[in-house]
Specification:
Oligomer: single chain
Strand content: 15-25%
Pfam family, one: ABC_sub_bind
Number of strands: 15
Number of helices: 11
Structural class: alpha/beta
Shape: globular
Largest sheet: 8 strands, mixed
Order of helices and strands: EEEHEEHEHEHEHEHEHEHEEHEHHE
CATH topology of the largest domain: Rossmann fold
Protein name: ABC transporter substrate-binding protein
CATH superfamily of the largest domain: Response regulator
Organism: Variovorax humicola
Radius of gyration: 20 Å
Helix content: 25-40%
Distance between the termini: 5 Å
Length: about 325
């Protein structure tokens, strides 16, 4: 049973062919125009069959578009495969790229096609990454909806501290090959020390590193673990959740795709809301607006999800004060 204050699910989008009406409210018999939108997202094959994809398509429909069959789905689990995937998709001459969560994809598309419009969703720190000049005036050919801030990172640590008030040691799991991780790690450590938690970093770069990292956490008597923001973790979330449960280490996750697989705690921006709003960016660009002139938005809705079933499996009693903060509880 799932108890919730408001309905939130998470997921990512696939490539999609859309048919665009000549007007926002096409008249009977009016001509329709096919425009190809290429999209790359992190995940295993089949990653497009998720609720956020429905939100994106619903956003297009509400703006007068009529999505049709003809999906060209590209799911990314290996960053080294990005140049090939991008080159293949560019061969079909898409009108624009929509990119979910992966800065590496934005960079790969931009390197392969410097002037093609890009709409990004759930991509962190676009200014720091050099994708836009500023949030209010992006410049160039990229815009969209950003994610991840130091406040969001600090809130995850705070919720863990409240859920385990007697804990003193926090494991930080990060893929330090990601150039943004150093900044996220610094923010996490600052938040932990402020809350009188001793942080210790466990670095991973390959899937095979994960079992060793969790075994080391158990050996070091780590009492909680928080993941640093990185889409690299998303396709590997089932294994990460399983390892955390097996070693009985309460974990805080960064994406709303984790709770349904057993993730204990998740605090994250509402990806469905962001995906729905992404359709407006696509609409504006296809109607002639320049990405350079469309301000980057930030998340406006956040959710704290507790998997009470997973808590019981490791013998954790979550304080009522923390349960009351949850927007969704999975029983």
């Amino acid at each position: 049973m799932i108890r919730r204050r408001r309905f939130v699910l998470a997921g990512l989008i696939s490539s999609i062919d859309v048919v665009i009406a000549d007007t926002l409210a096409p008249t009977r018999g009016g001509a329709l125009k096919v425009v190809h939108i290429a999209t790359l997202v992190p995940g295993q094959p089949g990653c497009n069959t998720v609720p956020a994809g429905d939100a994106f398509r619903r956003g297009l429909t509400d703006l007068g578009y009529d999505p049709l069959a003809g999906v060209d789905s590209r799911c990314v689990i290996d960053y080294s495969d990005l140049p090939r995937l991008v080159a293949e998709m560019l061969g079909s001459k898409p009108a624009l790229f929509a990119v979910w969560a992966l800065p590496q994809t934005v960079r790969a598309v931009r390197q392969a096609a410097p002037t093609i419009p890009i709409v990004f969703v759930d991509v962190p720190d676009p200014v720091q990454l050099g994708f836009v000049e500023s949030l209010s005036h992006p410049g160039g050919y990229s815009t969209g909806i950003s994610n991840v801030s130091h406040d969001l990172i600090a809130k995850r640590v705070q919720l863990l501290r409240e859920a385990l008030p007697h804990s003193s040691r926090l494991a930080v799991l990060g893929n330090l090959a990601n150039p943004l991780q150093a900044d996220y790690l610094r923010a996490t450590r600052e938040a932990a020390l402020t809350l009188h938690l001793e942080p210790r970093t466990y670095a991973v770069q390959e899937t095979s590193d994960l079992p060793r990292a969790f075994a080391a956490m158990r050996q070091d008597d780590m009492e909680t673990v928080v993941l640093l923001p990185d889409a690299w973790f998303y396709p590997r979330r089932a294994e990460i959740i399983g390892l955390a449960q097996r070693h009985r280490i309460p974990a805080m996750y960064t994406n709303l795709g984790y709770p349904a697989l057993g993730g204990l705690f998740t605090y994250a921006a509402d990806l469905i809301d962001m995906s729905y709003r992404a359709a407006a960016y696509v609409d504006k660009i296809l109607r002639g607006a320049k990405p350079a002139d469309i301000p980057v938005q930030q998340p406006t809705a956040f959710d704290f999800v507790i998997n009470a079933r997973s808590a019981r499996e490791i013998g954790l009693i979550v304080p009522p004060s923390v349960m009351l903060q949850a927007s969704q509880v999975i029983e």
